[in-house]
Amino acid sequence: MLEVHKNYVLDENQQPIAVQIPIAEFEKIEEILEDYGLAKLIDEVEEEKPLSKDEVLQYYQSLKEENVAS
Predict the structure, then answer these.
(1) Fewest 10 Å CB contacts: which of 42, 43, 47, 55?
(2) Sign (positive/negative) of CA torsion 35, 37, 43, 48?
(3) Model-level pTM?
(4) Longest dimension (CA), the chain
């Protein structure tokens, strides 16, 4: 299991409003999520016609853009 070192950011009422984590840990989490998205894509198309490399990359990029927009 990935250990995440968290620092909580509190507001003036001492209520937690955000969390800070080291960049290296954030990048590892990001990599895990991207791998999960790619595995999900592979599962979705398992019974369909295989996608070309360009189609996979295009779909993968759309997932990343979708996540940034939300």
Answers:
(1) 47
(2) negative
(3) 0.56
(4) 56
Alpha-carbon distance of 62 to 60, in angstroms, equals 5
CA distances from 40 to 14, 18, 46 (A): 40, 29, 10
pLDDT per position as a tens digit, 2-29: 899 999 999 999 999 999 999 999 999 9
Q: State the average pLDDT for the chain.
A: 86
Q: Distance (Å, rounded) from C-alpha 15 to C-alpha 59? A: 39
Write the DSSP string, 14-48: S-EEEEE--HHHHHHHHHHHHHHHHHHHHHHTTTS
